[in-house]
Model the fold of this input.
Amino acid sequence: MNNPAPPVDTVAAVTTRITERSAAKRQAFLSAMLRDERPRRVHLPCSNLAHDCAAALPEDKELLKKGQAPAIAIVSAYNDLLSAHQPLGAMPPLIKQACREQQAVAQFAAGVPAMCDGITQGMPGMELSLFSREVIAQATAIGLCHDLFDGVLLLGVCDKIVPGLFMGAAAFPHLPAVFVPGGPMPTGIPNNEKSRIRQLYAQGKVGRDELMESELRSYHAPGTCTFYGTANTNQLVLEAMGLMLPGAAFVPPYTPLRDALTAAAARQACTNSLQGATPRALGALVDERVFVNAMVALLATGGSTNHTIHLVAMAQALGITLLWEDFDTLSQVTPLLARVYPNGEADVNRFHAAGGIAFCLHELLKERLLHADVTTIMGMGLMDYTREPVLGERGLTYRDGPTASGDPTVLRSAADPFEAEGGLRLLTGNLGRAIIKISAVAPEHRRVEAPCRIFETQEAMQAAFRAGQLDTDIVVVVRHQGPRANGMPELHKLTPALGVLQDRGHRVALVTDGRMSGASGKIPAAIHLTPEAAAGGPLCRLQDGDVITVDCERGVLEVRVATDELMRRTAALLPPTENSLGRELFAMYRANCTPADQGAVAYRGV
Done:
């Protein structure tokens, strides 16, 4: 048997194959990006420019009409409904003042919608969730289409919001861009206690009042939810890509350090702008190496499976083609450094206190698993992101980050990881291709072979559970949940019931063309199955009792039915989609989107 290639060689090989695979599209993208990068306002006729200046403060108006000061767009996902985005409302005044001090002008160019998957879990509104990313990208483009700006600050945190902001900004690749986060809420009750109460409620052992009290103690203040779901994965990935300030991701909102980082982000945007000292266009800054860094950071921390969709879509927006095989290959050589709920008991605040992103990046750079020589918004290599911000008498400064974990139960070195491999796998077989997150799945549960039970909705599965029909070894199949079917909702409402069945000693797995995202937990869940049932994938021909194998270790997803027999079966029809709560407005996205492994993108980019 040949010895496996060293991890550093694997990272290099994956980077090379992405570069070669993307060469034609990337070159076309970069060629199209080459445009006049002089200050945009100098091209405007006087009447057009007057419209831009009309509402500006007098001191800003003077700078704007001359067109000789950096003009920075603010695009924000602020609303006061969502805890993660409520803190963004306080940021524009800080940004505007910081820009004025740089003899620049910041204008609030666009607000983009931000929905909460936590509110819509298990509800009809969840069917709008994935494609809200496309709406956010379009809303970002509308804010930037006036072609006035020399740079953009992008304020957003949660699930589809950050990828949507990125994709919208990528449509203006000549513009420098800096992302600005909001920070997590304070720690509430332990996440495993929250999970325990949910499982008890699913069994009818506690009532709604106790469940409500538990949830309110979990989600209780402004800031991002503290478990390591898609929102917090967004923040970690953006730091690993060098697109926000070092150490900015997990500083709490409404603190002096948070405000100082927001002002510093504004100053950096001025420096990076087309009229700044060192212009850094987004389209040139983010290359294939940056996306490899993003994938490695995702895998090393057991981050959200949603990023196997979002990173693919984000890369496409810049002419770069990522495949699920890239995630899978990198996962095999990336050590798992973090245990953050649902992959452990800690939350992101505890992760941050233990050393957080700075420590993780230090370890990965030491092992040469990241490209250190990329250019970040700071103008330096990725080693800049192993430092951490501090606020003192001299204002905001940086110091070297920790080189040892402050809590080995949460964060470990690359020499002593929780596992030798990362948290994601690609499953393939006669059912298609699926992603599985195994960083929270115990080794003894990573292979399940059992008869399946088919459901068309998660409500039907929950009803069967409550009726006691699932108390056996079982592979639960929930189909017609893909992007073309109903917008690919997340299926978190399945988690408590499946966890109960596993705790009762049954071998349990989930197979679906829907999503589970950052809350994928202790149950092996083969998700994002492609081709989806609505596109005629084998999933639509399964029947109750078919034996399915979900094998995380070997990367296998198979049904024990001969292919010719499977194809003779009548395909299950797509259940009708109800037109309520705005779902009818998203029909065009469902009809035109690409498969999940191509980013579930509802428009054709480069």
